[in-house]
Specification:
homodimer; 362 residues; alpha/beta; Rossmann fold; Dehydroquinate synthase-like, alpha domain; 2 domains; seven-stranded mixed beta sheet; two-stranded antiparallel sheet; 15 helices; 11 strands; globular
Chain lengths: 362, 362
């Protein structure tokens, strides 16, 4: 088992990474300071893992709340339901929530913990690769508003993260592969060594071999923890974690959040941002080729989906700009392992990038 | 004009106190870092002050949102409505909310600012004495759940507080007097000098004479700011601000939050907590007499309301205890100007106190 600390002073917390962790009572004993917890999970994860977690929580007063699976559940009404249950069962300020699931469960449970009586503890038990390497770490919690994703939220750090990598073997192929996009992202923005490791171990990775799962989750968590420790509330550095996401969100929104998974859109977004970095004269053609190659080989998209118009992508990308009343910021690459957040890019390269990939849609 | 700083490192902010401040453009210029603001207010305050604030905000892109007056508006639906407006008008992370009103408006607006895009700035323009001396300062924000007040909330500090004491002269007598309870509270828990000043200036105070208004608001804000700077999230010292509130909440709840104003219940709660402090052998009979006398002279209640049963009060007081799964804590006095938060009180004195005041109901 590996242990990585997210260093945030008095709010520091551990991420435990390893095989079969959810069955180990001592993990929970280490993390819990209360005898009263409520596990929030979805109907899919419930069937696979809930009873195992409850068994390991032997001796603790465990309540559970199961919601249907899906992003549509991530809203204020779902939060209000959980709060009703907490009040009915007299949960106090020292009690604890446990998020058992993917990003939707983690975001919803975390935001509820942030708001209940102005903030109680919560633990993350992420059950997808995306959640294990990204969303469960760093305290970004939120629910959706009908006009925008994650528009209602808080920075509220968990009290601990339990990343049981054996769970990753039960994921559908596409969901697992989607999570690899965020792993590749860490290599691209700040960890050339990780990127090279990924290039050399594609087969073990797609086979979900135990050591390679542990390695990529550990390295990803370490990168995320370092960034969050330096810039918890995204004043600067943390924005580099959005590499590929501005293009990616435009794709997701353009598709109405259907057909493509988040990681797939991010992967395509990373290819586009890399292409634009080449046009800027920052990234070499050789690095671009390596990025394109790795993303393609793990099975992530390297071309835009049909149904998307070039103008749509540009318009959707500028939503952020309009909202902030300022100049659009993009995360671009200076090299593999070195990202920058900048407003100083050439506007025409942005359109050129979109047109280039749009023209390649078959 | 007086200026008091709430010292919270990078989140420090000023409280401006004086006559006619809401009309002064330079106050807003000092505090605002954005050209896009939304004022949230209620229908009563709107008629009296909204146009004056908008006029002073000359040159700023001002949106407004007016809700009906009343505690019932302090809920998640009202927050969601404000967020819809913010999104429709493309408010970004650098925009700002302004809470123009009493505690309900401040709490609702502050919590909305805490959650919108994981936190934006907000200003407080408190229009009641209670809000000027207490609720607008210190970053406690919340909305109510149908099962409990302030159960959904956040610690989110404002970017500045504008306490225009001339507004206090427009308040109904009972609302003004209710606010004095919190002023007296600061004297009792940590400021003997303020308490003595109040004893000597009751007439100027009840006449709402300009200098005395400025003095009590300033001294109250200074006390609150000092406590919040030491213990922002109520791990210890800040709990002394709840002096009189455990008894007070029991009274408010027992009355279904009708008939009595918050400050009236707190005043009676302070008398009860003081009485219990005497039983503990901590507070002198003479100090008790001074407390009883000051509270009575300013026109606040010194006996329990009819309709309340002795057992009800005890039961309602123990709700906190059941929720926290621990021993009940109370704020009691060692002397005028010295409060302690303690679990180490004699249980029988609590019942004795309730019975004593219950027997005096006429």
């Amino acid at each position: 088992m590996q242990k990585i600390i997210v260093e945030l002073g008095s709010r520091s917390y551990p991420i435990f990474i390893g095989e079969g962790l959810i069955d180990k009572p001592e993990i929970y004993t280490t993390l819990l300071k209360t005898k009263q917890v409520m596990i929030v999970t979805d109907a899919v994860v419930e069937k696979l893992y809930l009873s195992r977690v409850i068994e390991a929580l032997n001796g603790v007063d465990v309540y559970k709340h199961v919601i249907p699976a899906g992003e549509i559940q991530k809203n204020l009404e779902s939060m209000n339901e959980i709060i009703t249950l907490l009040l009915k069962n007299r949960f106090g300020r020292t009690s604890c929530l446990i998020a058992l699931g993917g990003g939707v469960i983690g975001d919803l449970t975390g935001f509820t913990a942030a708001c209940y009586q102005r903030g109680i503890n919560f633990l993350q038990i992420p059950t997808t690769l995306l959640a294990q390497v990204d969303s469960s770490i760093g305290g970004k919690t939120a629910v959706n508003h009908k006009m925008g994703k994650n528009m209602i939220g808080a920075f509220h750090q968990p009290h601990g993260v339990i990343a049981d990598v054996s769970i990753l073997r039960s994921l559908p192929d596409r969901e697992y592969t989607s999570g690899l996009a965020e792993v590749i992202k860490y290599g691209l923005i700040r960890d050339h060594k990780l990127f090279m490791w990924l290039e050399e171990h594609i087969e073990e990775l797609t086979d979900r071999e135990s050591d390679s799962l542990s390695y990529v989750v550990e390295q990803s968590c370490r990168n995320k923890a370092e960034v969050v420790a330096i810039d918890e509330t995204e004043k600067g550095l943390r924005a580099t974690l959005n590499f590929g996401h501005t293009f990616g969100h435009a794709i997701e929104t353009g598709l109405g959040y259907k057909y493509w998974l988040h990681g797939e859109a991010v992967a395509m977004g990373m290819i586009m941002a890399s292409h634009m970095s080449v046009l800027q004269g920052w990234l070499s053609d050789n690095d671009m080729e390596r990025i394109h190659s790795l993303i393609s080989k793990v099975g992530l998209p390297n071309q835009l989906p049909q149904l998307l118009h070039s103008k749509d992508i540009r318009d959707l990308m500028s939503i952020d700009k309009k909202i902030s009343h300022g100049r659009q910021k993009l995360v671009l690459l200076k090299a593999i392992g070195e990202a920058i957040v900048t407003e100083n890019f050439q506007e025409s390269f942005l359109q050129e990038t979109i047109d280039f990939f749009h023209s390649k849609i078959r």
